[in-house]
Write a structure and sequence with these properties.
The protein is an alpha+beta fold and about 270 residues long. It is built from 4 helices and 15 strands. About 15% of the residues lie in helices and about 30% in strands.
Length: about 270
């Protein structure tokens, strides 16, 4: 992904300012249409339908909603404009029109057990997501609209949606891909391998989430969390990086609500 910058109908190129950028090492870097210059983010997802819909986190699909880069880029461009306006006062009118948008260039899925490669990457698109960062969930859709061979579906009809069934002390399991691509095994026929962890619910439900103590690391965002009966109860979305045992999950009900809201929109 990258950031697109505009200033009304002003051609930023005439000021030698790029319109597609990322922040790298705290500095602006022009993208120039090159995917190698863009930012990459990895996470976990799981199938929820036969036609290849994948539940994951909103911060995987729209990471720019969760960091300060949008405002940092906007501030830097406003500084550039203010400096240029010292010689050309007419540019002052465009300073307030600076707009920075996150752009998802490409998103794909690597099946469990496959190596990260172009031929194994299955292209996806955003099926439905929203801009409410409190509800950190999104749904992707495989472009083929077809499950990969040996794929498994998490049955949302059996998911737990009642907070009273998510109790402190209850045992849970989470499966996902912590550390992203770094754990793929280059010495065996297997590539990226699914990892499972057990733990307990440690914090009762809030409006959006609950806490648990199963270990989790970067790359595991979007992992499904199950109760002892194998029912989905949540999706891992956050944790304390300096200490294990303090992790958080968005309640499964928010995934179901997102899909139901889309179905109602299609009917309307």
């Amino acid at each position: 992904y990258y950031y697109k910058v505009s200033a009304g109908n002003l051609d930023l190129g005439k000021l030698d300012l790029p319109t597609e950028v990322v922040i790298s090492d705290g500095k602006l870097k022009a993208v120039n249409g090159q995917r190698s210059n863009m930012k990459m983010y990895t996470g976990t997802g799981f199938f929820v339908s036969e036609d290849g819909k994948i539940a994951t986190n909103l911060h995987i699909v729209k990471p720019w909603l969760f960091d300060k880069e949008l405002s940092l880029i906007s501030d830097q461009y406003k500084m550039f404009m203010a400096s240029a306006a010292a010689e050309n006062p007419a540019l002052n009118a465009f300073t307030s029109q600076i707009k920075v948008e996150g752009v998802l260039d490409y998103i794909g899925m690597i099946p469990n057990g496959a190596y990260f490669s172009d031929e194994n990457l299955k292209q996806c698109r955003e099926f439905i997501a929203h801009d409410n960062t409190d509800k950190d969930v999104a749904i992707l859709q495989l472009e083929t609209k077809k499950m990969p061979e040996n794929g498994s579906i998490v049955d949302l009809s059996q998911a737990v949606v009642n907070d009273s069934e998510i109790c402190v002390g209850a045992h849970i399991y989470t499966i996902g891909f912590p550390f992203g691509l770094s754990l793929q095994d280059l010495k065996s026929p297997n590539g990226i391998q699914l990892l499972g962890h057990g733990g307990s619910i440690t914090q009762e439900c809030t409006k959006y989430s609950f806490g648990f103590d199963a270990s989790a690391y970067g790359g595991a965002s979007g992992s499904p969390i199950f109760n002892e009966r194998g029912q989905l109860i949540g999706i891992l979305y956050s944790g304390v990086s300096k200490s294990q045992g303090f992790n958080y999950a968005i309640k499964a009900s928010h995934v179901i609500d997102l899909l139901n809201n889309n179905s109602r929109q299609e009917i309307d």
